[in-house]
User: What shape does this take?
Amino acid sequence: MTDNLAHFIDGSLVDGTSGRFADVFNPATGEVQAKVPLASREEIDSAVASAKAAQPAWAATNPQKRARVMMNFVALLHQNMDILAEALSSEHGKTIPDAKGDVIRGLEVAEFCIGAPHLLKGEYTEGAGPGIDMYSMRQPLGVVAGITPFNFPAMIPMWKFCPAIAAGNAFILKPSERDPSVPLMLAELMQQAGLPNGILQVVNGDKEAVDAILEHEDIQAIGFVGSTPIAQYIYSKGCEHGKRVQCFGGAKNHMIIMPDADMDQAVDALVGAGYGAAGERCMAISVAVPVGQETADRLIEKLAPRVEALKIGPFTAGDDVDFGPVVTAEAKTRVLGLVERGVEEGAKLVVDGRDFKMQGYEDGFFVGACLFDNVTKDMDIYKTEIFGPVLSTVRAETYEEALSYAMDHEYGNGTAIFTRDGDTARDFANRINIGMVGINVPIPVPLAYHTFGGWKKSGFGDLNQHGPDAFRFYTRTKTVTSRWPSGIKEGADFSIPTMG
Ligand code: NAD
Assistant: This one.
């Protein structure tokens, strides 16, 4: 017996009317546990119409009142943490502690948005000229949208809708069709927190819904997170339709291990950052770059037994599990295919998880941890984002060679260096062409009051996610020049005014 999920439109859960549905799996068992409706253009139109009607009154609500909704929402997230985490794990497959982390990293952005009154303050210049004052204000865009990936079904929707709504916009969320329950629950909690009907809509769907959003003339801006090919598609099509667009894409994050690094610390970092959430994180470390053959040998010697000992299991198995299944059967087939490809290409598979079977969960989408050594730049497993529990080791002779691997890769989301040498760390942070950098920190996800964003093929468009950039992205600046007393007479001036 499977449940039919819904959309959340105009303050209520509503059934889908397109007649099209997608299966939502429990990745641990492989069973279909729900069907999610896939919205038609008409359903997108109805959500946008409701958002458009509700938005002016919300924009006119003073920012402190909007901030109070965020405050209530944060409290409700805490109260509902266990329910949210269980729903999230059952559709995504990640462990319960990791699912709570997913909710908390979103909640922290909601907390940041309580500061909306301060963040939306404009600028003022008194006496810019004779009797002239000048001020600028930040105004909401109107109706804006977010299209989000499966791997953080709580965090990334909140990164999008919290700042947009706190800034006075109405928001259309199109979450991943693979794990849609938590986004629906978040919308219900926002409603309970005091959000008026129509300000947050959740419309489930696939390409049809996304295209309807991209082409809708009443949607002013789109924030996307997902894989790079789709990010590029959404960026170009959204811009073509005159929208403000920011898209965050895939990744291949390198961690450089210098000869002077604390090797135990580096190994701890690599197992957590490489295999946590089955490697399905855009900030996962997927490439280890030890510098010098001796460093590489020491690394593999310590790392291989740790990777072999990783505990894999369903989220219901409790806190003892390190990571769960990947999200779908297709994801499993894809990851195993890439591991096979790596072997064919001549990389050394030091830990081979290809035959892993989870006892009692044989139909689940589990993939055993894999560790490659002697991976080279020309191999597909190096070039491609694998998005599974697979770590590749690329050996570099020098720091400059290690740096060039990270610099030359097409992705530029995150990176890290492990060293005890301040000069090297500083040089790395300074020269690297990647958006988020860790120094002895493997997953340098910036906190809510800083901003998150990759470079190169990991990010398209202007401004980052959350932090002050989110308020810049979801608002536009209006600048007013006024002259009082109005009676000052200077005669007509036919040249451009200057402050001469
Ligand atoms: P995805 O690109 O398959 O899907 C993302 C969204 O796009 C979903 O809502 C999906 O429904 C929609 N979509 C999928 N195919 C589409 C199409 N043909 N046309 C229009 N819309 C389409 O990504 P995913 O598998 O859900 O997520 C994993 C990817 O996201 C990885 O590449 C990961 O690195 C990336 N990611 C990036 C960040 C970041 O901040 N850079 C964060 C998390 C995940």
Observations:
- The chain is about 40% helix and 20% strand.
- The mean pLDDT is 97.
- The two ends are 77 Å apart (CA to CA).
